């Protein structure tokens, strides 16, 4: 197949053609102007020489005296040689030549126009005479009384004018060649730069690449943000604008700080660091971010950030974790119940029936008390099961989980998933906070309805949460644990914002922290997220 020309090659050929035509036109114009100038110069010369000869007293005296040809021939030859003209002809008013470079033509009539000169004027013409085509002038010779007594004609052949013009040809050719070389070099450098920038692609290839590029960017289901080395957003595809809530018209070239990006995304993009499957929060969404530096030919071009929406997955994962925790708690309770049952059976076999009944009754009453309190206070079955499971987990970890006696939650319009997210994550963080601390280790939970709001309060006896870290903990996924964790409180913050609620973090009596969340049944009610902190 015939190799297609690249854009750079086509541009180079076009530039060379245009420059060649321009130089050729300029050279032609310069030659024509030089020819006209040479002709004008020859005209001025023959007129000046003719007038000078006509005013010479010697010529006036010779034409009115005896033997004009004999006296005038040496004079005319000297003037012709001195002025580099081709002929100096002095003639009588009746055209009879007194002088001529060709001696055979002396005494014969002059050919050409002389009538205006006989009337006292000056004749300037291009005429083909005995010596060929020439530029000539004819002027009158006057005596002391002003009468025309003779005529003087001085001429330069056109061939001589052209020869003089040809002497300038090397300079013109050199200038033309230099202009062509300079223009060709400039066009070559420009095409080389363009070839490097377009990577040698042709128009059809670039059109096809742009169509594929634009189609892929609009079809891909991952958010894509490209930032150049100057910190400007070079590209944000449709999915990125949807995930980040950016306006539809978000022109490329804006600085990251002016692009209305969510703070976690702006911080990640501005840092330029590499990120792999890093969870970040953008409004009510949990996104997984991957960021890499882009390079071409060893040269860094900027960074590329890809985003995937994991909001639903995170919510489902949280529910799954709760179910797993409940399963583990039930397994632990089953194991503990089996141990107690073996103890009771052994005591019966030993004949200590009264002690066995007393032990079984006490254990049953203790377990039933917590169950009755939770089930009686919380009619939401999923939330009640969650609290029972967390109580079992706390017991395994040596933590006492108390459900406040004032807890009461009947039917509510709040989704059970959001309630589980808030209560489960707050209790998990409270359990983490008291883990490893000195006894007593206690976590208290209060859930109740008041004035159209659901109030959730979780307190612990841990080290507490410094006030300076509250905003980070609930807005940016802050964690005291290893990297990649710590989204629990951030998810709580998302639920609070989604339902127009508010939350507070206050110190607990005797140490620890108390987190209180207010959730409204209608998401149209807007609250200040950090009121009271």
Automatic annotation (TrEMBL):
Catalysed reactions, as listed in the record: ATP + protein L-histidine = ADP + protein N-phospho-L-histidine
InterPro entries reported for this sequence: HATPase_C_sf, HATPase_dom, His_kinase_dom, PAS, PAS-like_dom_sf, PAS_fold, sCache_3, Sensor-like_sf
Ranges that cross the membrane: 171-190
Domain Histidine kinase: 304-523
Record Pfam families: HATPase_c, PAS, sCache_3_2
Residue ranges constituting the PAS domain according to the UniProt record: 209-269
Translocase in keyword set: no
Primary localisation category: membrane
Protein name: histidine kinase
Organism: Dactylosporangium roseum
């Amino acid at each position: 197949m015939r190799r297609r020309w690249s854009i750079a090659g086509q541009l180079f050929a076009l530039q060379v053609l245009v420059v060649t035509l321009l130089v050729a036109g300029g050279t032609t114009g310069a030659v024509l102007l030089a020819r006209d100038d040479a002709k004008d110069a020859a005209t001025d010369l023959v007129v000046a020489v003719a007038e000078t000869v006509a005013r010479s007293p010697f010529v006036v005296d010779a034409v009115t005296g005896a033997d004009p040809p004999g006296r005038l021939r040496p004079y005319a030859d000297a003037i012709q040689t001195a002025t580099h003209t081709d002929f100096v002809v002095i003639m009588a008013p009746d055209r009879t030549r007194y002088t001529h470079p060709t001696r055979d033509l002396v005494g014969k009539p002059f050919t050409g126009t002389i009538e205006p000169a006989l009337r006292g004027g000056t004749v300037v013409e291009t005429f083909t005479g005995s010596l060929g085509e020439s530029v000539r002038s004819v002027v009158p010779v006057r005596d002391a009384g002003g009468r025309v007594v003779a005529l003087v004609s001085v001429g330069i052949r056109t061939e001589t004018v052209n020869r003089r013009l040809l002497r300038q040809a090397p300079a013109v050719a050199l200038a033309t060649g230099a202009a062509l070389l300079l223009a060709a070099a400039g066009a070559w450098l420009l095409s080389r730069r363009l070839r490097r920038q377009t990577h040698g692609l042709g128009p059809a290839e670039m059109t096809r690449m742009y169509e594929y590029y634009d189609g892929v960017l609009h079809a891909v289901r991952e958010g894509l943000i490209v930032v150049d080395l100057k910190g400007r957003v070079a590209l944000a595809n449709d999915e990125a604008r949807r995930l980040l809530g950016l306006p539809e018209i978000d022109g490329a070239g804006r600085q990251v700080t002016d692009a209305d990006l969510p703070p976690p995304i702006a911080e990640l993009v501005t840092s330029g660091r590499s990120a792999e499957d890093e969870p970040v929060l953008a409004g009510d969404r949990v996104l997984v971010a991957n960021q890499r530096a882009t390079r071409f030919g060893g040269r860094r071009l900027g960074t590329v950030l890809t985003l995937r929406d994991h909001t639903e997955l995170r919510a489902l994962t949280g529910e799954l974790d709760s179910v797993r925790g409940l399963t583990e708690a039930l397994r632990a309770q089953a194991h503990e119940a089996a141990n107690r049952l073996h103890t009771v059976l052994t005591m019966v076999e030993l004949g200590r029936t009264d002690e066995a009944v007393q032990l079984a009754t006490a254990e049953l009453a203790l377990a039933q008390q917590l169950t009755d309190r939770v089930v009686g206070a919380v009619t939401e079955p999923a939330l009640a099961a969650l609290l029972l499971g967390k109580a079992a987990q706390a017991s395994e970890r040596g933590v006492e989980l108390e459900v406040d006696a004032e807890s009461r939650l009947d039917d509510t319009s709040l989704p059970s998933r959001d309630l589980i997210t808030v209560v489960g994550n707050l209790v998990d963080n409270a359990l983490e906070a008291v883990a490893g601390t000195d006894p007593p280790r206690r976590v208290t939970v209060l859930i109740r309805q008041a004035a159209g709001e659901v109030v959730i309060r979780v307190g612990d006896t841990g080290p507490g949460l410094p006030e300076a870290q509250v905003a980070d903990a609930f807005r940016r996924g802050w964690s005291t644990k290893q990297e990649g964790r710590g989204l629990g409180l951030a998810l709580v913050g998302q639920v609070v914002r989604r339902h127009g609620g508010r939350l507070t973090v206050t110190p607990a009596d005797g140490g620890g922290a108390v987190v209180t969340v207010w959730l409204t049944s209608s998401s149209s009610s807007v609250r200040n997220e950090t009121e009271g902190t």
